[in-house]
Every structure is written in structure tokens, then in C-alpha cells.
Design brief:
about 75% helix, globular, about 180 residues, transmembrane, DUF1440 domain-containing protein, mainly alpha
Length: about 180
Amino acid sequence: MIGQTVTGLAHRRTNRDQVTDLVDGAIAGAVGTVALNVVTYLDMTVRARPASSTPEESARRLTEALHIGLGPEDRAANRRSGLGPLLGYAIGVACGAALTVVGLRRLPGPVAAGLFGAGAMLASDGMLTVLRITDPRRWSRSDWLSDVVPHLAYGMAARATLDHLNQARRPNRRFPLRVHPD
């Protein structure tokens, strides 16, 4: 029965619905990424902890794996400083889009928020693990909290953004907009 319901939903969705989900999801992913960064920077401020080197190291390993030269080392270091955060935004936007397209926007709010956060965390930590920058199996409790909390903020912000975008598309039934010609 659940399979028939999912199949029925898939057949009723139009290309326009899928494009809307893709665009809305990208917007939600961008907002979620901002929320994740704000929570991360607040954590750094409160605990006086240093910035992570993983964004720059990700950029270094990824450009090396793809054989992309970044120029002389002094310029390459600066480029990695810019590319690292851009990779984070790209992952956040792509996760928002992908997770919306697969249907998370239709789940109850708290469930969707948790899954958005978990999906973004899996994508970012998965990339760091594949590039051998980190090994989550060796993380401390503090390391996990420093990763989970910002990703939950990502999920909550992404879901709230999708809710807002959904409401913005609905006609206001209590106060409909009426245009009167002069």
C-alpha cells in the first residue's frame, strides 16, 4: 500500500513541480548553510576554539585529486582559503535541492528538519572521510556535538525556508489581493 502511494505521488508530479522543488531546495540549502555557519561561528566564539582547517584541506585534496593547479603556493594557499568555504556552500545548496526533490518537504516538520540535517552532515562528513581528512570513528563527544548541532540548525532553517516558500505560493484566503481597475 505504501509503495502504491509513493508510486501514485511520483506519477502525479509534473516537471514544473520538480523544478519548483529543485529551486526551493537550493534556496533552503543556502539558508540552511548560513544557519550552520552562524551556529559554528557562535560555538567558536563561546568556546574560544580555533577555526577548522578541514575546508582548506578539502579544497587542497580535491584539487589534487582532480589535477587542478592553483598556481604558485602563496597564491594556491589563498585560493584554497576561498575554495574551502565555497565547497561547503555547494554541498549545502546541493543537499537542500536533492533532499527536497526526493520528497522531504512533504514530511512532518521535525522529521524533515532532522533528515535535512542528517543528509547534509552525511554529505559533508562523507566527503571529508573519502578524502581522508577525518575519521568520524575517532571523534570525541565534543567533536560530534560540534558537528551535529550546526547540522541540526541547517535542517531547521532549511525546513522553515521551505515552509515559508510554500505559504508564499498559497493565495491568502482571509485577505485576498484584489486589483481594481481605475
